[in-house]
Amino acid sequence: ELPCSIRSFSEAAGVSVGKVLGTMMQMGIGGVNINSQLDLEAAETLAAEMELSIELKAAETLENSLINELEEREDSAESLIARAPVVTFLGHVDHGKTSLLDYLIGINVVKGEAGGITQHIRAYEIDKDGRKVTFVDTPGHEAFTEMRARGANVTDIAVLVVAADDGVMPQTAEAISHAKAAEVPIVVALNKIDLEGVDENRILTQLTEHGLTPSEWGGEVEVVRTSATKGIGMDELLETLLTVAELNEYSANPDREALGVCLESAQEGDRGVSAKLIVQNGTLRVGDVIVCGNSYGRVRAMTDTLNNKPIAEAGPSTPVNVMGFDEAPGAGDRFHVLDDITKAREIAETRTHASSQESLSGSTTKISFDTFQER
Ligand code: GTP
Ligand code: MG
């Protein structure tokens, strides 16, 4: 049971103590004062009487106690090891994000894309002489703002891809604001440098106007000239990224329950749900109990995102395809590993309930659970 005082009930509900006590009086409950304790049932009855909804309470409790603890748990300095930087390609449509990534990983995705437009959010880990980098490719088409934002949210370093023949375009500007909002370092790939008659100064000026002053102009932003089709500047781009990564000393604790973000997910017929996740901390293993947004399950199988080979575990910064969710988690939802499938189910169910409640009744007063627990 979760006792709460009349005081915290009134504060959480945003109604005066007098009104709460008055209602209780009408209900025939006397002899109570501001410090009297209500149990869950009494709080619910009272809320119903006052036409307040405290439906969300139980859900938020479990989330507060479990999920918040996992999110806020600090890793001791000794438990931390270096992890690969997560590098996201952002930029306007057709400026060459997928081509650059293809070149770096040595595969050719661009050829297989419908109309050459990326409609998914891809993530691959590559290994450069023992130094790993996780790359995330996002679509540049204007319809995919949400996917670019998602890419920016999981990223440590943003590569802003700007085609030299086109310059800063609307989705370039949008990508700049996503990267700035995420407070991550930005490296510019001035791509298609192989094309005739490009005016580099024009683009450096545009970048400066958007608050990205190139280092060659005394600013802080590295601008690397690249050609994804000719393979120009690719080593320099990778080295620049690895240098930024080294300066930032990204680290994580591999010896804890995994947590991270779902990039996208799909129902794959008989095979069930496949979700593409990025592990941000801890290690995800086959058999783990996992909850992500409204869905939950036990990790049945995991595969590498590059060649789809089965893998048994995925450490920090690793992108991975995960099978075993009961339904497709939402793109952008955070995932957590729990020790108990029942808890995972309860959390997923209460979240589902909460989101349907929210959509059903816009005017429901939610009583924050924090308030209940803290006082
Ligand atoms: P979206 O995913 O749709 O946002 O596009 P994108 O940024 O991933 O661009 P993509 O890699 O699909 O490249 C678009 C077109 O530009 C393709 O035809 C590429 O072959 C071409 N391209 C990419 N990089 C270069 C380059 O460095 N030089 C030249 N000349 N063409 C390039
Ligand atoms: Mg693309």
TrEMBL record:
It comes from Rubripirellula tenax. It is found in: Cytoplasm. Belongs to the TRAFAC class translation factor GTPase superfamily. Classic translation factor GTPase family. IF-2 subfamily. Signal peptide: none annotated. The chain holds residues 376 to 750 of 966 of the full protein. Residues 85-233 are annotated as: G-domain. Residues 82-249 form the Tr-type G domain. GTP binds at residues 91-98, 137-141, 191-194. This is Translation initiation factor IF-2. One of the essential components for the initiation of protein synthesis. Protects formylmethionyl-tRNA from spontaneous hydrolysis and promotes its binding to the 30S ribosomal subunits. Also involved in the hydrolysis of GTP during the formation of the 70S ribosomal complex.
